[in-house]
Structure formats: C-alpha cells, structure tokens
Amino acid sequence: MTASSAVLAALRAHAVRSPHATALVGDDETIDYATLWQRVELLAAWLRQRGVSRAGLWGDNGIGWIVSDLAAWHAGIALVPLPAFFSSTQLAHVMERTALRHVIACGDRNGPATPIDAVASPLAGIRLDRIRVADTAVPLPPDVSKITFTSGTTGAPKGVCLTTSMLDAVAGALAARIHAAPGMADALHAHFALLPLATLLENVAGVYAPILLGKRVVVRAGAGIGLHGSSSLDVPTLLRALHAAQPGSLIVLPQILRALVLAAEQGHAPPASLRFVAVGGAATPVSLLLRARALGIPVFEGYGLSECASVVALNAPSADRVGSVGRVLDHVRVRIDDGTILVAGNVFPGYLGQGHATQDGWLDTGDLGHIDADGFLHVTGRRRNVIISSYGRNVSPEWVEAELALCPTIAQAMVIGEAQPSLGAIVVPAAGATHDAVRRDIATANIRLPDYARIAHIAFADMPFTTDNHALTDNGRLRRDVIAARHAAQIDALYASPPAVPATGVLR
C-alpha cells in the first residue's frame, strides 16, 4: 500500500476476528471475510510480482471486481475503473490519457482494447491484459490510489485523482452517519450493489463503507438484477432480485427511484427489509421522495462530487429534512459564496495532468444552493445552467424539470429558453402517453409555477435521453449541449411562433 488504508485495515481485522462472517454474495458463490482477505492478498502479491503500477479495471459487477479493486489498492497500484457504459471513444480517451499498459479484466467479457497478451491470475475469472498504448503517461500527484473518470456534461471524460486518505474519509463518514440512528446498525446487515461498481458512489458507499463495518455486500452482474448499462432498467427483474436478497440498503438514481415508486403504486413494492435507500446523482423532486416514503420506501437524498471522492452531504434517520440533501458529513466543510456551494476538507489534488483545481483549499462546485438555519444543505441548480430570459429573469432549469418529472406522461424533459421571452421543453413522453396528454400535464404543472418559469413551447424528442446516445452523463445528468444540438431545428421552429401559454398556464 502506498498509504495506510482504514478500509483495508478493517477488512484484515474482520478476517481475523470474524473470519466466517459473510462478506460478499455473488452470482455463483458466497465468501466470508477470511476468504475475501486471502484472495485480496494473493492477487495483490501477484500484481506486485508482475510490476504493475497503474492499471484499468474492467468487468461486470461481481465478486471478482471487488477483489481486484481491493487487491490493486493493497498493492499500491493506481487503479482506473473502466465503465462498461462508456462509449468506445470515451474508453480509448481514458486509456490514452492514463497511458494504461495493463487492464485487470474480470469475467469472460472482451476487454476495452485488443490485448498484446492476456495472463490468467491465480484467481479464477480474473486475468491481466497487457495492451499497447502511446507513451503519454502524465505524472500523478502523491499517494493517488484511484483515478475515476467522470463523463460530466461533455463527451471527453476527465480524470479525477483520488488519494487513499480521501476514500477512507468518505467511507468512514458515511458509516458513521448512516448507522448512527438507534437500530440501524443491525437493520443494515447487507447492502445490495445496484449501480455499476465503476461508478464512484457505489464503489465507495456500497463497498468500502460496508467493509469498514463488517457487513455483507450483495453483488451481482447487471443482467441478473435488471440493470443494463447505467440507465436501462428492467423493474420486475430488479424486484425479484431484491426480494431474494432481502438487503438493508440500496443506492439509486432518481430515474430508478421513480421506477420503483411507480411499481409500488401498482402493488409491486420492494422488500420491507430495506431500511435505507440513498438517492443522488441528480436532482430528485420532493414530491417523488414523499410518494416513496408514503409507500414505505425509506429514501434519503444526498449530494456529492467525484472531486470530493463522492458524498459530501446526506440525509439519514438521525438527521433528515426532505427537500434538502442533508447535513454536511463530518469529514468536509461547506460554505456558500454568492449562492455557489464551496467545499473544503476532502478535496482532490487535481484532474489528471491539470494540477490543482482549488483556491485556498476550497473547491468551487459550480452548484447553486444554501444552508438553512438547522444546517441542512439545499442544492438549487447548476450555475452554468441558469437560463436568463429576454426579460432578465434567472431560472434554474433543474427546478422546472423537477416539476415536469412529476407528470405521469413525461419520462424525461429538458428545459430551454436562453435569451427567449418564455421557456420551452424538449420532452420524452412516457410509454403510451399521447402528445395531447403530455400537453395537458404540462398545463397542470404550469399552474404550480410562477409565470416566468412556465413552459410555453414543447418539442417532442424522437428517442429517450440515454448514456448510449450521449444525451446523459454516467450518473444520469442531462448533457444539455448535446440535446440542444440534436433538436436545434425543432427549437428554432418553436421560437418562430408566439408563446402558447397565457398567464393562467393553460396550453393552447
């Protein structure tokens, strides 16, 4: 290890004190803490012997992925998770940017690049691919143990360098926050890893935090749990998997929560064993949170950034306020500067090859928000997304989009209207919804909004917004420039006509 890791130390301690306690439940096997530690040590030693100092990690969710991740950490390797939902162009960019010569591959899936050779490791199902890349390696800041690439809102992913101390700090703060409420420590006996493990949030909150506490992690490949890529979900398959596993905790994105709520409203609820469902990655409408809780889904919203090694604030049973993203975790500090959220205390040393990205230790998140009198953080939108109308009114599109997300006829929507007299929306209708039904729902939503924030124009998208067509980031945020460019002709046509919504909000 390049630096002492609290997560690895906890894993080793559990292997000694509770060797037969279940650690991981996979598709084909269940292993205890003693076995997990043995595999981590064996693979780490083998990787050291082969002189690996920087490697990619490729594969579906599974025991092999977690073992490889922990072994690379133990061996002092700078690890680069390679998301399977990245495009081939994005993956090529990541491998070139990091000058990867090795990829740890789990399972039978072909790797992201044609290998020069592939060597089987001492552990079944894990191999080391040696690949040919241009010698463009850039130096890493000290003690970097992981480089996570976030697709953000543009096509070329950026490499966020993370240190061992940062990863440990988040895992420890999450463990303390979530398990602080009476009875929660026993209730959260198992975590169900739903999101791809290459997603930092699932990696840290869904694996490292449970390991710190000696809990079990249920980790199965996406096809077996209904998740394909990062944004396609088969709800019946997911519900069957959840009922079979009976987990205590789960991490979801807003779109997944919406699907679970709709299923529960039709009589297909997730298991009662769930005591903590964390939602993050993008703004979640308050009404959706309330609907979930009314159905017995214990959902808690949080907020984080890759640049802070994931979670910064989180609601929990011990401190909860719907409409906020929770109180700031103990390992970081947050302040508001002219409406913008700044974070310090667990901030990354920089993007790969770009150096420091902070001023005086404070990271400008680009997110807008405030902290209320009781210390709960509220996020209201992205500074660069703010729409300024031709009447000079500032509108955060996320606010209006959250209202549109409550419409049963709307699957997805992006608000537009920069320098225009009124707002418009590019809408993906829900399955079976007619255009007229969408218009009626938007008219109803408009009544809840002030006049300057109402939708006056509607364009209908010809396909959903997904990661596969580059309309969404890997954590579900809209790529606004991509969507706007794709629908440029429709947008021009919309604003060639007068606004279609009077002050009453009724569409004509």
Automatic annotation (TrEMBL):
Gene3D superfamilies: 3.30.300.30, N-terminal domain of ligase-like. One of its GO terms (biological process) is fatty acid metabolic process. Residues 12-338 form the AMP-dependent synthetase/ligase domain. SUPFAM superfamilies: Acetyl-CoA synthetase-like. InterPro entries: AMP-bd_C_sf, AMP-binding_CS, AMP-dep_synth/lig_dom, ANL_N_sf. GO terms for molecular function: medium-chain fatty acid-CoA ligase activity. Pfam families: AMP-binding (PF00501), AMP-binding_C_3 (PF23562). This is Long-subunit acyl-CoA synthetase (AMP-forming). The lineage of its organism: Bacteria, Pseudomonadati, Pseudomonadota, Gammaproteobacteria, Lysobacterales.
